[in-house]
Amino acid sequence: MSAPTSQPIWKIWLDRLLVVNVFLVIGGAGWFGLAVVSSSQGLEAPMRQFMRLWEPLFTPAIGLLMGAALINGVWSWWQRQVQRARSDSES
Questions:
Q1: Looking at residue 83, what DSSP letter applies?
Q2: How far apart are the first and last CA of the chain?
Q3: Distance between CA atoms of 77 and 20, rounded to whole angstroms?
Q4: How far is CA 62 from the centre of its chain?
Q5: What does the mean pLDDT of the chain come to?
Q6: The pLDDT value given to residue 70
Q7: Contact, 26 vs 18, CB < 8 A?
Q8: Helices 45-53, 9-40: inter-axial angle, 10-degree rounding
Q9: Burial level of 32, CB count in 10 A (0-12/13-18/19+)?
C-alpha cells in the first residue's frame, strides 16, 4: 500500500506522461543519430522513416517537453513567492 500524497491525481498522471515523453524524445534523438550514421554509409531507410515521423510525433513531443519545462519553472517561482508571502505575514 502506498503512502498518501499531497499531490492531486491529475498532477501524478501529468508527471507520468512527461516521463514517457522524455523517453520518447531521448529515443528519437538516438534514432536520429543512428539514421545519420546509416545515411553516411548509404542506408537511407532509417532517415526516411525518421523524417516521416518528425512532424506528427517528434515535433509535438519536443514542444511538450519545452512547454512543461517552462510551466514547471513558472510554477516553482510562483510557489516560492507564495511561500515567501506566507512567511512574511507570519513574522
A1: H
A2: 40
A3: 25
A4: 7
A5: 92
A6: 94
A7: no
A8: 150
A9: middle
Instruction: Work out the pLDDT band at 33, boundaries 50, 70, 90.
Output: very high
H or E segment and range at residue 8: none
State residue 5's pLDDT score: 63
Whether 23 has a pLDDT exceeding 80, the answer reads yes
State residue 2's pLDDT score: 55
Q: Are the C-beta atoms of 65 and 22 separated by less than 8 Å?
A: yes
Residue type, 26: I
Measure the CA–CA gap between 9 and 2, rounded to whole angstroms: 14
> What mean pLDDT comes out for the span 44-64?
97
pTM: 0.79
Q: Which residue has the cell 509535438?
A: 60
DSSP string of 26-66, one letter each residue: HHHHHHHHHHHHHHHTT--HHHHHHHHHIIIIIHHHHHHHH
